[in-house]
Amino acid sequence: MVALYKVPKLSDFSPQALDRHVAELLAAVEAEAAAVKTSDTRKAFRDRWLARKGGILTQVNEWLRSAPKDIKPEVGRRVNQLKLEVEKRVEFKAQQVGKAAPESSIDISLPGIRRPIGAEHPITRTMEEIVQVFARLGYSLVEGPIVESDYYNFEALNFPLDHPARDTQDTLFLANQEGKPARERLLLRTHTSPVQIRTMEKVGPPLRILAAGKVHRNDPPDASHSPMFHQIEGLAVDSDITFGDLKGTLDHAMKALFGSQVKTSFRPSFFPFTEPSAEMFVSCFICGGTGRRGEEPCRPCKRTGWIEILGCGMVDPNVFEFVKQRGYDPEKISAFAFGMGVDRIAMLKFGLDDLQLFFQGDLRFLEQFK
Ligand code: PHE
Question: Which atom of ligand 1 lies closest to the CA of 191?
Fold first, then answer.
């Protein structure tokens, strides 16, 4: 602690005495300044020396007042000089402490810097919701590459070379692949089904997996198409899986997603990697399956009362031939698989009629999902 300086009353106004008092005062301000380390003590220090009411410099005016008339000009000159010196030191200290401890000079009454909180994209949210429904049934989530080889996207899924079913996929191929054997050529996966093969190569049966992610097809963008969209694939393999298991699982999942009142309907279809294959519809949860909303026709189900949600089927034994060494013997095991478009489901859930809204990055749209 520095002993605090007190302004003396002057009786001796000789130049030597004045010099001594000035020197003492400057030494005092110097010593007190050296002890100031924080902005709190800086403020006290400043007030003590510069406050108009009762500050030390104000008290020094008393020297001038009490000086004999003939030496008042001399005392006045020194007092003015002294004030400048003291102010200089106090200001210097203020700057020094301000720099050394910037955090203590924060004005907490100012509004803070706003960091806007983001929100999950509606597609991610829908995907997560679907994944959760199946997670509760014991399915685990796996991933696969978006740039895929012809082998995984087609061949091992029982699309023979030159099979017309390949044309239905509007595949986007990577450039400059002609030098490679057909099965090694790279493409943007057209569905999430290649993850079935990739997983079965790594893990033996039984299996219950979901694969979720981006897929691409050469479709020009419009209100219901996009060259990039999202799918969720499911695969369940065990020793005695039946079509009844497929129906029961998907019916439960649709009720969990769209409400317990929805019904499911399975209609025959074709996929090279499932046999039999089906398209699954849910009763329209917008019009309640009536095809009408009051006087208006129901647009989302095109007045049919049914909405197509996914493709599915029993895994074709030919597919197992590609992973037989991993324990998938078509004589001993069976499996069902399904694949659904997440974007369409998200549109239905959020009542949108333009798919492009999801991909334009317009904050006015996205902020509604906060
Ligand atoms: N992969 C198929 C498609 O994208 C959907 C599907 C998945 C069908 C699994 C059957 C089984 O059209």
Answer: 4
